[in-house]
UniProtKB/TrEMBL annotation:
Organism classification: Eukaryota, Metazoa, Chordata, Craniata, Vertebrata
Protein name (database record): Immunoglobulin V-set domain-containing protein
Principal location class: membrane
Keyword GTP-binding: no
Transmembrane spans: none
Signal sequence interval, chain numbering: 1-17
Pfam families per UniProt: V-set (PF07686)
GO CC terms: external side of plasma membrane
Membrane topology: Single-pass type I membrane protein
Keywords annotated in UniProt: Cell membrane, Disulfide bond, Glycoprotein, Immunoglobulin domain, Membrane, Receptor, Signal, Transmembrane, Transmembrane helix
Record has Glycoprotein as a keyword: yes
The species this protein was found in: Neolamprologus brichardi (Fairy cichlid)
Length: 137
């Protein structure tokens, strides 16, 4: 029995009021995991490719530049159905809705992940404080 997996992660910056299958909170500038399984399909959101995996390897030619070097899969666990994405150095702009889409010999499936970034308000406050201090120097 041959099984193959196509994994594409896309990003779409939309309001978090949209209902999703899974809500994930990540800390600004930390590493975060977006859950995806072969049962749930390929991960995608909107028209921006975050990560693609097929033919047993990463396919990053169409990966959006702002995700370059920040995404990885647990390649040793894909055959067991774990297609979760690890996103490093999480940015405020990463907040939004992602779609997990997988295609296997058993069919195509999709699920959604809403990513929320925690700690961004304190970072923004610190940034504004630094700007104010520099203005008054």
């Amino acid at each position: 029995l041959q099984c193959w997996l196509v994994l594409i992660l896309l990003y779409d910056h939309v309001s978090l009021a949209v209902v999703a299958d899974t809500d994930v909170s990540c800390i600004f500038m930390e590493t975060c995991m977006l859950p995806c399984s072969s049962e749930g399909g390929t991960v995608s959101a909107g028209d921006i490719t975050v990560h693609s995996f097929y033919h047993n390897k990463d396919q990053l030619e169409r990966q959006n530049q702002r995700f370059r070097g920040r995404t990885s899969l647990f390649n040793d666990q894909i055959s067991a159905g774990n297609a979760s994405l690890q996103l490093t150095k999480v940015e405020v702009q990463d907040e939004g809705r992602y779609k997990c889409y997988t295609s296997t010999i058993d069919g195509n499936k999709e699920s959604f992940i809403n990513l929320k970034i925690d700690g961004k308000s304190s970072v923004l406050s610190l940034f504004l404080l630094i700007i104010l201090i520099l203005l008054f120097l």
